[in-house]
Amino acid sequence: MNERDLVKEVILEVFNKNGYADAAKMTQRDFDYISTEIEKKSGIVISGITIKRLALGDFSRLPQVATLNAIANYFDHKTWQDLKASRAAVIKPEKETHAPITRKSGTGVLKNKLVYFSGSLLLVIVILGLFIFKSGRARVANAEKARFSCQRSTRNDMPNTVIFNYDIDQVHADSFFIQQSWDNHRRKRIYKNKHTFTDIYYEPGYHIAKLIANDSIIRTIDVHIPTDRWFFYAIDNIINYIPEYIKTGKDSTNGVLGISAQQVKENNIDITKDKLYHYTWFPSEMMAKSNNFRLKTRIRMNEVRTVLCPTITIELFCQGYFIVMRTTNKGCANKVALLLGQEVKGNDTDLTALTFDVHQWTDVEIASVNNIVSIYINNKPVFSAPSFDPIRFISGLAFISNGLCEVDKVELTGLDGKTVYKSEF
Predict the structure, then answer these.
(1) Cβ-Cβ contacts under 8 Å for 72 (sequence gap 6 or more)
(2) Which of 162, 375, 391, 405 is 20 to 30 Å from 415 by CA-CA measure?
(3) DSSP per-residue codes, 224-236
């Protein structure tokens, strides 16, 4: 094993320690979560994108010393050299190949001299190229001198403009960006000597904005955008990620939370297209902790267009991560998914127990006791597994479906008995 292989191996060990058995099945959110875990132990930020690249072996030269030291810190070593020394027995230098020594004629000697000259010239070109590459791409320096903060333009309205204040004048890097959340498609470039940048958040939630130098995250801040009411919108399934707001006179009808196909049409939304309909609630004050809570709800779905596999997703938003359950009819169990300590998918795990006829009223309960999440369908336990280790607060709740959900009741409580939300539909 050479040093490059060691980098990949120890990154995979970090994944295993956090419950991720297969890097190929990890999402960008998972890599960002690993970034947070390494930062907590080392104080050094390695971007989720960089972690993904290291795990997949997608690097031609060793990472920066600070990156290697951060990984070493995670394993309680002061430096990468300390970690490498502790594993010296498994690290082998690259093998050198030598041509066999044989007697040569005059022509053979000339030929070997030409080969030697050509090889030397190639080596010089490679070294020169690396020098130019390194010179053209400066490393990040003085990252600790960066400043990053924000404020919302409104309290609870959507969309919501966020004003970012930053100072990167003393930071040395080729380029700088602000990314408003985990989604790297929402990354905007910023420049030195300009200290204000505004961006629009189209969805409520608890977002983590990032200040990025080159491809390294140097600062993060929480951006909490509450609604203090149920907020409805539709998003084209995969094709487009801009929400279409659904404005209604009231949140419920006859004691049931939901919207009708007529209300969707009145908002000029094409119900014949494949869309996901979101019902979201984000309070200004967070009271329930993510490791100890109980959510009880009663749900069903009405189709607005014919779909072979109707799905309902229950999503609990926590500070920095999500607890998600997506269910469907039994014949479509392949579409079931969970996001707890890691993502569990129905296409490689038997999650049939989590399915039910989504067109019929069904009681669902999700409970977490000391980071062990249990799921109940119609009061029957069907699944249990560890969740994320960080103990944070639940910041919001959502019902997401490729049809129109109806929610008969919602009750979210902490295990101390404190009611966080109870339906009054």
Answers:
(1) 78, 79, 80, 82, 83
(2) 405
(3) EE--SSEEEEEEE
Report the DSSP beta bridge partners of residue 165.
149, 196
C-alpha count within 13 angstroms, C-beta hemisphere, residue 27: 14
Are residue 129 and residue 152 in the same domain, yes or no?
Answer: no
Lowest mean pLDDT, pick from 52-61, 152-161, 215-224, 227-236: 52-61
204's CB contacts (< 8 A; 6+ apart) are: 158, 160, 225, 226, 227, 231, 280, 282, 396
- Does the global pTM surpass 0.70? no
Query: What is the CATH classification number for the domain harbouring 209?
Result: 2.60.40
Distances (CA, A) of 326 to 24, 48, 299, 339: 21, 25, 13, 9
CA–CA gap between residue 68 and residue 179 (Å, rounded): 24
Exposed e or buried b per residue across 271-284, where buried means at least 16 C-beta atoms within 10 angstroms of its C-beta: beeebbbbbbbbbe
- Do residue 264 and residue 369 come from a single domain? yes
Q: What is the pLDDT of residues 46-92, one digit of tens each?
A: 888 888 888 887 777 788 888 888 888 888 888 888 888 887 755 54
The structure tokens listed for 421 are 């939300």
Q: Which two tokens mark 285? A: 């004050």
Asked if omega into 159 is within 30° of 0 (cis), the reply is: yes
In degrees rounded to 5, what are phi and psi of residue 178? Answer: -120, 125
- Residues 215, 264, single domain; the answer is no
pLDDT at position 388 over 80: no
